[in-house]
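DATA SHEET
Item: assembly model
Revision: 1
Owner: S.N.
Input lines:
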Amino acid sequence: MEHILTPKVEEVKLLDRYTAKKPAIGTLYLTATHLIFVETSCNTRKETWMLHHLIATVEKLPLTAMGCPLHISCKNFHVAHFVISSERDCQNVHQSLVRLSQPVEELYAFLYNPKQDEDERRNGWGFIDSAMDFKRMGLPNEFWEMTDLNKNYELCSTYHSELGIPKTASKGTVFGSAKFRSRGRIPTLSYYHKESNAAICRCSQPLSGLSARCVEDEEMLQAISRANPKSTFMYVVDTRPKLNAMANRAAGKGYENEDNYSNICFQFVGIENIHVMRNSLQKLLEVCAMKSPTMSDYLTGLENSGWLRHIKAVMDAGVFLAKAVAEDKASVLVHCSDGWDRTAQVCSLASILLDPFYRTIKGLMVLIEKEWISMGHKFTQRCGHVDGDPKEVSPVFTQFIECLWNLMEQYPCGFEYNEKYLLEIHNHVYSCQFGNFIGNCQREREEMRHLISFSLVYFFQTFEIVFNLIEYQLHYLFDRFWCGMYNHFDKGMQPKQSILDHLLTITQKKAEGEKKMTDLQILAVMDGVLADQGSPTGTPPEQTSLSPVSVSHTAENAKPLMNGAAVEEAEIELVPTAGSEKMEPVAIEN
Amino acid sequence: MEFSEHIKTANVEDVVLRRPFHPPMQGTLCVTGHHLLFSNRDGDSSRLVLLLLRNIDAIEKRPSVSSGTITLKCKDLCVLQLDIPGMEECLNIARSIEYLSSLDIVSDMYPFFYRPLKLSLQDQWGLSSPEQNYAQMEELQDRWRLSHVNKDYSVCPSYPPAVIVPHSIDDETLVKVAKFRQGGRFPVLCYYHRKNGMVIMRSSQPLTGANRKRCREDELLLQAVIDGSGLGYIIDTRSNQQAQQARMTGGGFESKSSYSCWKRLHRQLERGKVLQESLIKLVEACGDHSHSVDRWLSKLENSKWLSHVHTALATAGLLAECVERDGHSVLVHGSEGTDATLLVSSLAQLILDPNTRTLDGFLGLLEREWLLAGHPFQHRCAHSAYSHARLRLEAPVFVLLLDCVWQLARQFPLAMGFSEPLLLRLAREVYASDYGTFLCNSDQERCAAGVKERTHCLFQFLLKPSEREHYSNPLYEPTELAIWPSIQPQSLQLWRGLFLRWTQHAVHLEKAQEELRNLVIECRGAS
């Protein structure tokens, strides 16, 4: 690679960001895709990898007595402070990283080869299908249908090709409405709530200006309202602060006038725009960067950043939607300005609150595919994948993931996935390692497959689908800073022991134990010690994708085994293996 | 004493009880000497709510013409409301509650009347004695001895009858040292670090006064502590300035010139009124539903509670570091040596000593370092965060300890043998209890009042098999290593389980705990 001026620098120090501990000393390597730091000062080989593409800023500081400091901060909040003894080397590394972290065309996803053949790759893309999800919701039905009016992206270039619209909306209504909506983003179905017939629809702001009207758009809303015959009204939710929406009217955009649309209940929910959010995150990261703040400095900084206030605002809006659908049984139409940031956040949160499917590993992928990728969230610009307008960068997706984490903190058993899964998804959104989050609209799906195959790690052990609607507490007080996200790479700062890892270890051990028992049983049957019961007992759990169902099944299936006399022997044999993982098939084959 | 003379109205029908997370309930209210009893007969099922009067911190009454409302704010931070028909009944009941919830005489308190069937007064009271503790630590016996100089509590009223001191220091010397330390609290051993033989000592401040008085015996005792190892640290839980000022009122600190082998470190821990007011502000902020997130965070900051947690853990970490990493013995004290001193020394022991992290070990630590070491529980826990009474000696030092332990357990979820419910239970029991454990201010007072003969011991009860399971941590994996907590503010959190217990529904979290317990048991059973 012509951009790498110095591929290897020795005697580099890696400083701890917070404490004055002795720095780690090691060798820094630059490869085509990664920066790798290999510690030489400790006995065990410790490596720190940073994907070039994740690097947000590289900063070379003035020479000090120790050497030349190089500060790197990544989009996944990984921060590393290196000190390189030679200023020249530092200069070279700096220059290379600046170039490598801002690719023009060669995104990592196009270089990444996870050793799959072409078929596997293609299957990966077919794994998640948002059209399937509408089918799952019961579409088409007597009120809603899937239309291909957008198959050539003529109706709306930033939408998916297949859209859910009310059956009674004519082609003219749809096209007319598209003309009256910013960027043609017409009201389309996001989530259909079977139990109440109410729907969540999303769109962009109307081009109402100070007084403009559009009959087709009014008809479109009527059609959505009529698709929920039991309700006499529908909500129209503008997720922006009222002031922002009013300002848009002067520019020929704006919001729905309640007088022009029949039976709508219009509401602002006051989520700030992408620029406010970007600045807020910046302030939050400044709080994170304080070296040894007092508790008061920290709490004041956290408050001044406004970050948790914004998280709460997004959350509250999601709750409003979910309650409207489940409790008032009324349909909701949501928009912000373009309907691809705040709207995506609140529609996905409402879906998660309403539907347990989205609280499963696969469900969350489907949701992200459906509400973010196929509805045109501008991942490339929002994540700053390629060098572009810094004003288009904003942590919209990060906020959605953080809202989800907050929900999981309150309902630890409500989700199949765990914090690691959220972090992994977040990481990949920024890493560009997989194609999903490249571009602005529906295209690819490889990562989803990648994540599924490792789902064991992300599986929250005690998941059970208990509530249909999560009863969210409106007065929930937000004071939790997500250390796992913003200090993920500062190892000392999070809990030193992980409950999750521990659970994974013991359940894995249990699964191994059960497998061993089954093997023993088969052996016993073959030897004629145990009668063949004919029924499949104690099927070993699948190692690749352990679903919650399979866990409970194996647990149940294992129980009857305990009663058999021959199995008691097996149990005795198993006892010494408890605790030691090393007793593998060797013992069984004897 | 006759409680009945303070109960004008013992029974009222058709009272409505409102409490967090429950629908309002109509039933009969009954006042007894120590309890409010609310019973509701709804068809066949009858429900009973029992509230210990001692638990009531503040009572607010709003009588109207024909009825009245009483709001009860409890020391466990729960807020209840009673709608009582009849103004006179309402006022009578309020008066009874006011009087009976603030009884002063120890022997009138409920633990002296609590006689459950499953417990016997003949059962052992307390977990261990100083003698037993000493006998268990064979390694230290050649350099340290058990002194009975305080056997009749005459040398130091707040110490137990037996304490561990350097072998070379005789009882006569101890008597002289005691005169030089506030409240007679001469330096005693509270922890012996097996790995390197270093110790943690605690005491009260030396009474050097304005004219820098010295005490040869005191210097001798401290010299004997470090005996040969060269250097010791003194962690003073006051700021340097506070320590200087203390000289004006007869107190003081160990000066460099008199204690040349000891290095003083000052870490300011708040105590007394400041701490109590911090708790009051925090609880007020937690109970206020009206605010947005921003005001909530600023109120949280303004209460300073988390700052106190932060400082306590940081100081304990420093203490543990001196002992384990630097290999020095440490003496801890502030002024009286009954509050911040105990907080820091017990937290350091949790960090260093795996034996204190089991359920039995932790309760043993509390017995040693808080009950026997003379933390004045009765003074400190007379009132909690809601009381309108003028503040006297109240301070939530013990609650602060529990919070710090919770932070430790959150950072090391596998390292503690006990669980959050234990900490919550202790936080409740310390203010109002069926058991005699937290009565009185010292071992001496407890003996004088007959607490050990006439009440039941909470710690013994918590260790009964029926309770043990509930209070132990299913994930516990003992580790011999020290557990070093992170004290970056990001790593510390508000203890929601305690402070938001009655305002934020935690039923899903509790369910998760239960699921977790079952899962672990199932897995253990299988492997």
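QC remark: Residues 447 and 550 of chain A are 24 Å apart (CA to CA).
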